[in-house]
Amino acid sequence: MxxxxxxxxxxxxxxxxxxxxxxxxxxxxxxxxxxxxxxxERGVAGVSVVSNNCGAMESGLAVLLAAGRIARVTGSxxxxxKEFARQYLAGELEVELIPxxxxxxxxxxxxxxxxxxxxxxxxxxxxxxxxxPWRYDGEGGxxxxxxxxxxxxxxxxxxxxxxxxxxxxxxxxAAKGDRHGNLVFxxxxxxxxxxxxxxxxxxxxxxxxxxxxxxxxxxxxHLPGIFVQRVLALTPEQAADKKIEQRTVSD
Length: 251
Fold this sequence. Notes:
The chain is an alpha/beta fold. The strands form 4 sheets. Strands 1-16-14-11-2-3-4-5 form an 8-stranded parallel beta sheet. A 3-stranded antiparallel beta sheet has the order 6-10-9. A 3-stranded mixed beta sheet has the order 13-12-15, with no helix packed on it. The longest helix is centred in the middle third of the chain and has 12 residues, at 100-111. Helices cover 22% and strands 28% of the residues. The protein contains 8 helices and 16 strands. The protein starts with a strand and ends in an 11-residue tail after the last helix. Strand 9 (151-154) and strand 10 form a beta hairpin.
């Protein structure tokens, strides 16, 4: 039951080239930076990433992106990541953009063993009808577009069929975790991290504070250890290394 690994490199030692990864975090909040850096140091390439966004300010997934290690991204927000936009428009990166709530539910559904579900989000748009550019040809044309999805009516309202997401591995960051893999997330880092963890067949969690089993009140557990296979305890310096994406100062 002790799932703790000694180092980040050990935690990701079996992640191969071309693996699919569900990665937690939102902006710079709750991003498993240490595990991502370990993947970079190992030279892992050609990965398919499922994450809300693809890193920012040269941190998080932006480390792998800038090195050309990411082949495909399924996400909901590009934001101000100029390198992401450049690779996408140049045809170097395949990108599936989907509504943010749909992304969250696709991850949760995959982790819960639900193969697909119907949602009203995207009906009447290219999300359902197909034609969204997944890959450009580098000259302004579309090399690969999204296919149409099944649309069905329930009680007079149309819904589009979306499939649950399962990935080879998941990388997440938690504020607290025990040796059994039970995790607690802090505030907004709780949004995508539990869902990404559920979606991974092998889930690796870096935790800012490692505690012994029983020290976390069962009612306080956000993600039970059944979803987590490996736990990496961060050093105090790693746990404190948190960037601010946009600082606002007022009088």
